[in-house]
Amino acid sequence: MGIPEGETKPEEQRLGPVLRRRDQVQPGTTDQRLLDTEGDSEWVHTDPWRVMRIQSEFVEGFGALAELPSAISVFGSARTKPDSPEYEAGVRLGRALVEAGFAVMTGGGPGAMEAANKGAREAKGVSVGLGIELPFEQGLNQHVDIGVNFRYFFVRKTMFVKYAQGFVVLPGGLGTLDELFEALTLVQTRKVTRFPIVLFGTEYWKGLVDWLRDSVVAGGKASERDLLLFHVTDDVEEAVALVTKETGK
Description:
- It is elongated and about 75 Å long.
- The mean pLDDT is about 90.
- The strands form two sheets. A seven-stranded parallel β-sheet has the order 6-5-4-3-7-8-9, sandwiched between helices. A two-stranded antiparallel ribbon has the order 1-2.
- The protein has helices at about 30-35, 45-65, 85-100, 110-120, 155-160, 175-190, 200-215, 235-245; strands at about 10-15, 20, 70-75, 105, 125-130, 145-150, 165-170, 195-200, 230-235.
- With about 250 residues, the protein is an alpha/beta fold.
């Protein structure tokens, strides 16, 4: 349904907060297009519709995690093998965090994430997995008790920071590094407060720490105090003690 016969196209059109003039005026009204049973279905792939999906993901995430007890986000590689020392460290870490009074939140996938969830579950704590839609992802691991799957990385990242009191970062790849530097940036810029970040595995993280000190800080791209934004350890008890001390728990 367009412009009634005998009427001319208006020069100005207001559609909620949007103003359209001249050639950008659309036929009909918003209600009309909503209630029309015919027409193109391409609207489900448009940016305005994506905004609604994004909003719904925030609502679902907030609703699922709002009553979560104090939590620590644990990151690490999905490629960590179940028979590796890193996997066993993840299990011990998940268990120790629960025993210290924390819920454990991971990306919900296999590898190091599964290990931390497994430890949390074995300790009878709250084991949370925040999954992401990926073409090669295997879904949430079996040790997740509360799971939320997201379409959008940035919504998922918000949940990790909003509902966690700190990060423990096991050896990982690009996704792990992404989460690590996101957290470091948020703390550096004071977008979050009282947010401990612990890198677990001194040998694995040594090259990165050296590069930050010898290239980034030495080149004036960051300050010396930025190296104090994180801690490095090989000890599960020390990792838990560090997040416990900084969160005041």
